[in-house]
Structure formats: structure tokens, C-alpha cells
């Protein structure tokens, strides 16, 4: 349900933001972000849920195991690639001569497609091995990043842009479920915001690459980062089999 809610919100945000930017100029996007963040802060302040796990688990908790660290590193790298490419999705379309209507249609379609990956992942969670999904996801993310960065026509740009966030959302749903089984204390899953630090670094790194090497360099760097993430997931899968345990029960 969380993924579906995010998808619906993305459609509304992308559609409304494009209209506001056209009417009031680029600075309007920052006002939109400020308003959304203020609402999110208010909700988190007054309605944040509370839950605790067994005190024995907390007392006996040691540091993260190597498989957990490998998975966390892989997630950070995938989020870095996501931000590197997604931050320049609109500029890439504009620089290739696409009209604002074409770009906006791609963004709205992207938001609609973003509703589906978490629901599909929930349906397939017991049918697909999570680390295989993670490894496949990194390869697909790198390939689509190169497609978006190097394509010159509307069709490959549009297909790549629509598929790109689907890959990340579908993959990390499986990965976080796997993390929950590897780390019984729940600390790894709770550290999700820290894992998405790549989202903060990505725009800066992507901008530097675009200025120095162009969009081709951006796509090549994204593919290289995804290969490192793939190595992390391979290392985690080789070490994690014996570490998987049943999920703990939450104390209500």
C-alpha cells in the first residue's frame, strides 16, 4: 500500500509541479518542495507510530554482519545511480529537442507506472529469490541508465525514463525484506534514510559529470557504479544463506 500511495502522490506532484513551473517559473518547484516537506514534518510529529522489539534481541545485538553491510552498500550505490540519472531526466529531454508536452507526458506516465512495482513485488515475494532480484536489478538499472543518457530519439528516452524508477522500487522492496530477516533487531531497515544518502550525492556528482564529460559520461559512470553494487550483492548472497532467521514478533 505504501508503494501505491507513493505512486498516486507522484502523479499528483509531477502534474501539479509542471503546471506551476510553467506559470510561475522554475523557483516554484522549491516552494512546492517546501510545502510538501512541511506537511510531512507535521504528520511525522503528531502521528508517528511507535513499536518495540524484544528486549532480549536489543540486549544481545552485536554489530551488523558482513552480508548486511554488503547489502546496505549496494542499496546506497543504487540510490546514487537513481539520483544521478533522474535529476537530469528533464534537462536531457530538453537538450534533445523534446517539447515540454512530450517531457510532461513522460513524467506523468512515469508516476503511473511507479504505482505498480511494490504491489508486484508483494505478489512475487515468495516466488523470487531476493538476492537474485537485487543482482538483476543492478544490471537493468545500469543498462537503462546508459539507454537514457545515450539515446537521441523520443521513444528510447521515454521507455527508459518510465522503466527506470520501476527497477529501483521493485528491487529495493525485495532487498529490504531480505534485510529484515538478516538483522533481527530491525536496525538495518530502520536505517533506510541513511542508506538513501546517494539521493543527496547523486545530483551533485551527476552535475559534475555532465559539465565535464556530458551525458555519455553520466551514463557510463552510472553503469560503473551499478557494477560495484552488483559485486556487493554477490558477496552478500554468498555469505547470507546461513544467517537468515525468522522475523521477530513486535510487542504491541
UniProtKB/TrEMBL annotation:
<feature type="transmembrane region" description="Helical">
    <location>
        <begin position="154"/>
        <end position="176"/>
    </location>
</feature>
<keyword id="KW-0472">Membrane</keyword>
<feature type="transmembrane region" description="Helical">
    <location>
        <begin position="215"/>
        <end position="236"/>
    </location>
</feature>
<keyword id="KW-0614">Plasmid</keyword>
<dbReference type="InterPro" id="IPR036259">
    <property type="entry name" value="MFS_trans_sf"/>
</dbReference>
<feature type="transmembrane region" description="Helical">
    <location>
        <begin position="131"/>
        <end position="148"/>
    </location>
</feature>
<feature type="transmembrane region" description="Helical">
    <location>
        <begin position="28"/>
        <end position="48"/>
    </location>
</feature>
<feature type="transmembrane region" description="Helical">
    <location>
        <begin position="68"/>
        <end position="89"/>
    </location>
</feature>
<keyword id="KW-0812">Transmembrane</keyword>
<feature type="transmembrane region" description="Helical">
    <location>
        <begin position="188"/>
        <end position="209"/>
    </location>
</feature>
<keyword id="KW-1133">Transmembrane helix</keyword>
<feature type="transmembrane region" description="Helical">
    <location>
        <begin position="101"/>
        <end position="124"/>
    </location>
</feature>
<protein>
    <recommendedName>
        <fullName>Major facilitator superfamily (MFS) profile domain-containing protein</fullName>
    </recommendedName>
</protein>
